[in-house]
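#dry-run=false #mode=assembly
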Amino acid sequence: MVRPHLVVPDRTVKILQWAMAGGFILFVGAIVTWIIHLIRTAWQLRDVPSASIGISLVAIPVFLVLLGVVLYVVWGLLTDRSEA
Amino acid sequence: MAEVDTRDAILLAPIEQTGRGFYWALALLSLAILWGGIAYAVQLNEGLGVTGLHQPVSWGFYVTNFVFFIGISHAGTLISAILRLSRAEWRRPITRMAEVITVMVLFIGAGQILVDLGRPDRVMNVIRHGRYQSPLLWDATSISAYLTASLVYLYLPMIPDIALLRDRLGKRKLLYTVLALGWRGTKRQKKVLNRAISVMAILVIPIAVSVHTVVSFVFSMTLQPMWHSTIFGPYFVVGAIYSGIAALIVAMLIFRKAYGLQGYLKPIHFRYLGQLLLVMSLLWFYFTFTEYLTGYYGGEVEEMKVFWGKFTGPFWPFFWGMVLTNFLIPLLCLVRLHRHSIGKVLTASVSVLVGMWLERFTIVVPTLSYPRLPFPGGVYWPTWVELGETAASFALFALFYLLFTKLFPIISVWEIQEGREMGLKEVEERLLTYLPETAEGGAHGS
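#status=ok
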C-alpha cells in the first residue's frame, strides 16, 4: 500500500525552524551566563578571578561565533526568495 | 525539487528500506546496552564500592574510556576540516562518516564522567560552584564548545541532502522539512552555506586541538609521577588523531560491506588513510619514546616506580601490548600497501584501536597505583560493573551510528554530485596554477 505524502503546513514548519534558532540562542546564552556566574563567584570570593576571566576571554567569543554562523545560515536560507 | 542521480540511489537505500541485518544488529547492541544499564543501576544503588575503584586508584576504566572516546572524536571534525580546507577531492565520500563519529563519541565520552561520578546529581555542584582554576572545568568548557561546533559542522553540509530526502521520501516529512531550512539550491543559498561551512572548517581545527590538549592537562597539571609532563598536550593530540583515523577506517569498512558502498569507498581511499595512519604511528612512537626516555634519564625515585611498574611490573602486559598493537603491528601492515591494502589497513586500524585504549589505560592507572605521597600502593582490577559499562558504551556508539544511517545518508550525496560535475574542472584549473608559465598557456597562478 502506498501511503499518501504528508502535507506539512508551511506555518508550522516556519515556527519550528525559527524555534530551532531560538533554542540555539538560549543554549549559547545559558553557557555565557554560566561562565559569567563563575567569574562573579571567583571575584566575590577573591578566588583567582584572573583564571576565570582568562578562560572566558577565549570561551565566550567561540560560542558567540558559533551562534553567529548558525543565525547567518538560518537567516540566509529561510529569507531567500530568489529563483532556483 | 532536488533530484538524485540514479547512480547515487544506493546512498539513500538504507533510509528507504530496512533489512534483517539491521534488526539483528539492533538486538545484539541492545543486549550489551542492557548489561550496561543493569550495571549502572547497581552502581547507582550501591555506590562506587561495587566497582574496582578504591584508594589510591580512584580512576580506572571510566576515565580511560573518557580519554579514549574523546580521542576518537578527533577522527571526524579535524580530519574532515583539514581535507576540506586542503580541497582534497578524495574526501567527498569520507567527510560525513568522520563527522558523525565525532558527535556520537563526544556524547559517549562526556557520559563516562557522569558514570564515574557515582552520584550524578553532584554534577550540579560543578555548574553552581565550579572553579576555573581546575583543569576539570577547562575540560567541561572545551568539550561543550567542541560538541556544539561539531554538531553545527555535521549539520550544515547535511542540509542539501536533507532537502533531497524531504522531496523524495514520503516518511518523516516534518523532520526533513524543518531541518532542510527551506533549501532549494539557489545561488544565494549555496553561497551562504559554502561560506558557513568554510568558517566552521577553520574554527573547528583549533577547538579540536584545544580539547585534547585540555584533556591532557587533567593529568599533566598535577605533580604525579609520569603525569607531570610538558609534552602531554601534543602527545595526547597525536594519539587522538591516530585513534581517530583508525576508528574512521573501521567504520568505513563496516558500512562499505553492510550497505554495498564499494563504488564510493574504494581501495585508494583506504590506501591514503593507511598512509596517514602510518605517519601517525611513527609520530606516536616518537612522542612515546621521548616521554619515557626523559623520565628514565631523570631517574627520579617516584617516577621510576611507575616506570618499572609499566615495563616489568604488574602493568607490563598492558604496556608491551600497547607497543605491539600501536607500533609494531601497524608498521608491519602499513609499510607496504601495494597488495591486499584493505585487509592490511583494517588489521592495522583494529590493532591501533586496541593499542590506543591500552595506552590510555597505562597513562591513567599505573601512576595512581604508585602515589607520590606516602600512601600504600594499590592494584586496580575492574569488576563486572565497569566491564558492563564499557561494553555498553561501545554498543551505544555503534547503535547511535547505525540509527543515524537509517535517518540520513552516510555519504554526502550532493558533495559526490558536485565532485562529478565540477571536481574535475576545478582540479584541472588548480593544477595549472601550480605549474610554471608555458609559451602556449601564458601566465598561471597569478
